[in-house]
């Protein structure tokens, strides 16, 4: 008998209905949450992290024992650290120093080496440094921002799961946009099943800095991003994202991260404009890696 490994447990996450978050149910809409925090390393990034490594192996680009390099704000780094541990790779992660301590600790728990850049340098600076290190021969950059294996992971797994779990009834898909891998892959799959499914991207407004959601400068827009795959974009601000994160935990019993609060805030804005809809929202990670941020201690 073959028993599963940790890698085998990536994906096949639950889809649950949020029953109390909607105050007005007269429009006959349903909001369903895809619980990506149930992945082994705790986020939706487990899917592309594992797929990027597996596909690079199949192409002969890397082999066990090599050093991998990646710029990350948190979840991808944790997911890659888990996947690298399972597959036998060394991992160097470059991240802004203002990332939460829980994220840093989780990466190091899996054996990753952390390299910090300043808050001012941000993810743009981290991405630049990763490529510089690769040019110096210090390792292989998987490059989640330009690697098609990122969205393909969601085309192959997340999209089909949502379609099957809703019996094809999904009418709207809402996802925060960071690397944009999730929304690109899921959009491609769902549109192939039903062109009328609406794909809604969530980004922070000009004044907000929300972990896991980005409004990229044009020069740093992920190469995997295709604007045509997003039907609508909704801006959210930091205050409403954090408030919705707390509400999700206290009203629905679902403790998730701030990007999930932002995605849900956007879904509720969308819900007010439509009827008879089945809205699927990506809950991309768990809230325990944000405890030190103080977001849950506010009233």
UniProtKB/TrEMBL annotation:
<keyword id="KW-0663">Pyridoxal phosphate</keyword>
<comment type="pathway">
    <text>Amino-acid biosynthesis; L-cysteine biosynthesis; L-cysteine from L-serine: step 2/2.</text>
</comment>
<dbReference type="GO" id="GO:0006535">
    <property type="term" value="P:cysteine biosynthetic process from serine"/>
</dbReference>
<feature type="binding site">
    <location>
        <begin position="178"/>
        <end position="182"/>
    </location>
    <ligand>
        <name>pyridoxal 5'-phosphate</name>
    </ligand>
</feature>
<dbReference type="Pfam" id="PF00291">
    <property type="entry name" value="PALP"/>
</dbReference>
<feature type="binding site">
    <location>
        <position position="259"/>
    </location>
    <ligand>
        <name>pyridoxal 5'-phosphate</name>
    </ligand>
</feature>
<keyword id="KW-0028">Amino-acid biosynthesis</keyword>
<dbReference type="InterPro" id="IPR001926">
    <property type="entry name" value="TrpB-like_PALP"/>
</dbReference>
<dbReference type="InterPro" id="IPR050214">
    <property type="entry name" value="Cys_Synth/Cystath_Beta-Synth"/>
</dbReference>
<dbReference type="InterPro" id="IPR005856">
    <property type="entry name" value="Cys_synth"/>
</dbReference>
<feature type="modified residue" description="N6-(pyridoxal phosphate)lysine">
    <location>
        <position position="45"/>
    </location>
</feature>
<keyword id="KW-0198">Cysteine biosynthesis</keyword>
<feature type="binding site">
    <location>
        <position position="75"/>
    </location>
    <ligand>
        <name>pyridoxal 5'-phosphate</name>
    </ligand>
</feature>
<dbReference type="InterPro" id="IPR005858">
    <property type="entry name" value="CysM"/>
</dbReference>
<comment type="similarity">
    <text>Belongs to the cysteine synthase/cystathionine beta-synthase family.</text>
</comment>
<dbReference type="InterPro" id="IPR036052">
    <property type="entry name" value="TrpB-like_PALP_sf"/>
</dbReference>
<feature type="domain" description="Tryptophan synthase beta chain-like PALP">
    <location>
        <begin position="7"/>
        <end position="285"/>
    </location>
</feature>
<protein>
    <recommendedName>
        <fullName>Cysteine synthase</fullName>
        <ecNumber>2.5.1.47</ecNumber>
    </recommendedName>
</protein>
<dbReference type="GO" id="GO:0004124">
    <property type="term" value="F:cysteine synthase activity"/>
</dbReference>
<keyword id="KW-0808">Transferase</keyword>
<dbReference type="InterPro" id="IPR001216">
    <property type="entry name" value="P-phosphate_BS"/>
</dbReference>
